[in-house]
Amino acid sequence: MSKLGNLGARLHRGEISYDFVGKRKIWYGVSILITITAILGLAVRGLNMGIEFKGGAVFTTPTKMSTSVAQAETYAKDASGHEAIVQKLGNGSLRIQIAGIDTGESDRIKQELAKDLNLNPEKLAADLVGPSWGEQIANKAWEGLGIFMVLVVIYLAIAFEWRMAVAALVALIHDITITTGIYALVGFEVTPGTVIGLLTILGYSLYDTVVVFDSLKEQTKDITKQTRFTYSDIANQSINGTLVRSINTTVVALLPVAGLLFIGGGFLGAGTLNDISLSLFVGLAAGAYSSIFIATPLVADLKEREPAMKALTKRVLAKRAQAAVEENLAADRAEDGDSDDTAPAVVGPRNQPASRGRGRGRPSGKRR
């Protein structure tokens, strides 16, 4: 953990960094591939809508039933003429869902099921959902999701700017598409709990995105007054500075959700937990990915198209090119200086100092 903390501190100070924004085309490609797979899953398999959305009946048996799930499915199909979904709950009881039946049929189906299961009809609990009520629930869910999106875009446009609002909206659509596509591929039932899970993970996704956007907004104040960094450079610094915090919050949120999904829904047989836990698990992971790899790089793409940002990029690149030229010249001078120091001395005639004994023994010209 201490190593992770040191890594986060070094990322925050800018001592080390990973070029998320520079490699954004890779992340875009990965996201497009996953999104296409999710859309194909939705188109081919479709969503397994619960009876809350399409109407039907839910029959719950007493505890400690000896009847297997496969036998109960056969009994329900023979009694209703429709496919049934049977789940064995943690207390040993069976939850039998039959969609597409009306209130008048439910009484007859209840009598036949009780007979096949060797139960008193009064001990077989029945919950009925009318088709019109289920349709209203579905419409309300879509309306709530649409209102949520509109409010998010308005808030981000006011608090930050419209480019960040657009990037956040794209990231949210990305998260919803992937989550619903996973539901279609896995075949889990879509219930009101699923809708609650979707709205919850959108909040988590926005939290990570807004943290990065806030850091980016602070660091890009008066950005055009300097020539060291482009907008993409600062966007990359913002991602790296908040990277470890985003990972920590996502992992901490995923651990209890994984417990609900794999332990509660898988080992303990609490199938109703799957509805909300799968949407939370997939959505949290997708939200963390989109906050880092989609939202901020997309903001950088949109901002770099502004005339002021284009001019800034030209100045920054020109300064970097000039600095590179000066560095090369300095290196060449250093090499030339080293060659002068090691050059051999020049050999040639030189003036010898006058000897003090010169002229000794010669006649002075004086007469004795």
Automatic annotation (TrEMBL):
Question: Where does the record place it?
Answer: Cell membrane
Query: How does this chain sit within the bilayer?
Result: Multi-pass membrane protein
- Gene Ontology terms, MF aspect: protein-transporting ATPase activity
What SUPFAM superfamilies is this protein classified in? Multidrug efflux transporter AcrB transmembrane domain (SSF82866)
The entry's cellular-component GO terms read: plasma membrane
**Where are stretches of biased composition, namely Basic residues?**
357-368
Q: Where is this region: Disordered?
A: 328-368
The residue ranges of the Protein export membrane protein SecD/SecF C-terminal domain are: 112-304
UniProt keyword terms in alphabetical order: Cell membrane, Membrane, Protein transport, Translocation, Transmembrane, Transmembrane helix, Transport
**Transmembrane portions of the chain:** 26-44, 141-158, 165-188, 194-216, 251-270, 276-300
* GO terms, biological process: intracellular protein transmembrane transport; protein targeting; protein transport by the Sec complex
NCBIfam families in UniProt: 2A0604s01 (TIGR00916), transloc_SecF (TIGR00966)
Q: What is this protein's function per UniProt?
A: Part of the Sec protein translocase complex. Interacts with the SecYEG preprotein conducting channel. SecDF uses the proton motive force (PMF) to complete protein translocation after the ATP-dependent function of SecA.
Q: How does it assemble?
A: Forms a complex with SecD. Part of the essential Sec protein translocation apparatus which comprises SecA, SecYEG and auxiliary proteins SecDF. Other proteins may also be involved.
The record's HAMAP family line, in alphabetical order, gives: SecF_B (MF_01464_B)
The entry's family comment says: Belongs to the SecD/SecF family. SecF subfamily.
Task: Quote the protein name from its UniProt record.
Answer: Protein-export membrane protein SecF
